[in-house]
Amino acid sequence: MKTKAVRLYGVNDLRLEEFELPEIKDDEILARVVSDSICMSSFKAAEQGPAHKRVPEDVAQNPVIIGHEFCGDIIKVGAKWQHKFKEGGKFGIQPAMNYKGSPYAPGYSYKYIGGDAQYVIIPNEVMETDCLIPYNGDSYFKASLAEPMSCIIAGYHENYHSHYETHTHVMGIKEGGAVAILAGVGPMGLGCVDYGIHCDRKPSLMVVTDIDQARLDRAATLLTVEEAAKNGVKLIYVNTSSIADPVKYMRDLNGGKGFDDVFVYAPVSALVEQGDALLGEGGCLNFFAGPINTDFSAKFNFYDVHYSFHRITGTSGGNTNDLREALKLAGEGRINPSIMISHVGGLDSVVDTTLNLPNIKGAKKLVYTHISMPMTAIADFAKLGEKDPFFKDLADICAKHNGIWSDEAEKYLLANAKKI
Asked: pTM of this prediction?
C-alpha cells in the first residue's frame, strides 16, 4: 500500500513524499490516519535532527515520519492482536511508550508510523505497552488533542504537597487551593485552564497570566469567568506587561498569600523566577515548558525551599492513564479540546507549518492528512469565504460554535475539501 507522509531526514529537512508500506507482520496493525495536531516538539525534532534524543542517528538513511498527536481508523489487524483490536475501530495513541527504557516514540523515531501520514504500520511495542487506545468518539480531532491534554493532566497529577507530621507526599494540586498559570493562554495553557475548571480536584482560585492582550481576550471568551464560577473556581486573567510588580499584584489577588501550585508554561528564566516568588507555604512549582537550550537555568530561592517547604517538579508528557482520562473527559463533554485549535490545514501544509511553528501566531495547528489545504486560521475563514464558498461554509459553521472548530466543521471539511 502506498502512503503519503512527511518524513524527517535531518536538521530542518522535512519532505512530503509518497512511498510503499510493506505488508504488516502478525504482531502489527495497519491504520489510516485522519487527523494530527502539530506540536512544538515536532519543531524541536526538526530543528535538532539526529541530536534530538528521540530521533535515530541514521535518520538521513532511514527517515522517520513526524507527528505524534493523531487519530484514525484501524484497517487490518495482525493475528497476535485480533483478540483485542477490530478492523474499522477508531484509535488514539500515547507516544510516550518508554518501551524497555527506550526514548523512541511514534512521530519521532519510526519509518512507518507517525501522525503526518495517510497510512501507517503500528508496531508491536505500541500494543505491548498498552499505548494504542480504542476511541469511540464521533470526531477525530478530539482524539488528536487528547495527547496534548494528557500532558496537561499529567502536570496536575505530578504536583505534590507534604504532610509535615507524617512526611508523606500527597500527589496532585492542592484541592481548594490557589493556582497560578504563567504564560497561560497559549494552546497548552488554554487546556490547562479548561482542565483545572472541570476536573475532579479543583482549585478555588485560578490566576492566568500572559503579556499578549489579544490572546488573553480570546481566552476570556472561550473559558469565561462565569463558567469557572459555576464550577466553584474564581478565574482571573492578568496582563502582566504593564504591572510594575506582578508578584505583589498576584499575591494581593490571593489575599496577600502565595500560591499553592504554580505552572510555568514558557521557557523563560525570568518567568521561572517569578513563579518561584509566587509560591506560598508548601507550594509546588511545575515547569511545564520544554526548553531547546540544554543549559537552560533559572535562580531558585533555596531559603524558601528550606524554611517554607517549596517544591519543584516538571512534566514532559502524560502516561496512558492520563490519555484515557483525556479521552473520557472529552467524550463526556466536560472539557472542550476545540478551544486549543486556531488553524486547520492539509497534509501539504505540514512542512512549512512545522518549520515555522514559533512564528505562526495562534494556538494549535490541526492537520487532516487526506486533504490538500494551506494552514489557515479559523479567524480568516470568513474573509476567504468572500471568494470561496468552501471557506464561507466553514466560516458559517464555526460561527455557530463560538468561532471554534467542531464536529460539524470536521464532517464538512472531510466531505468537501480537496483531496491530496
From this structure: 0.84
Q: Beta partners for 180?
A: 207, 262
Q: Are strands 341-346 and 376-377 parallel, antiparallel or unpaired?
A: antiparallel
Say if CB 58 and CB 107 are below 8 A apart: no
314 by DSSP, 3-state: which?
A: strand
- Provide CB contacts within 8 A for 298, sequence distance 6+: 269, 270, 272, 273, 276
| pLDDT averaged over every residue in the chain | 94
Contact 357, 40 (CB under 8 A): yes
Residues 6+ apart with CB under 8 A from 197: 206, 223, 227, 228, 231, 233, 235
At 179 the pLDDT is: 98
Half-sphere exposure of 129 (CA within 13 A, CB side): 21
DSSP lists the bridge partners of residue 367 as 36, 345
The model's pLDDT over 245-303, given as tens digits with 9 standing for 90+, comes to: 999 999 999 999 999 999 999 999 999 999 999 999 999 999 998 787 889 999 999 99
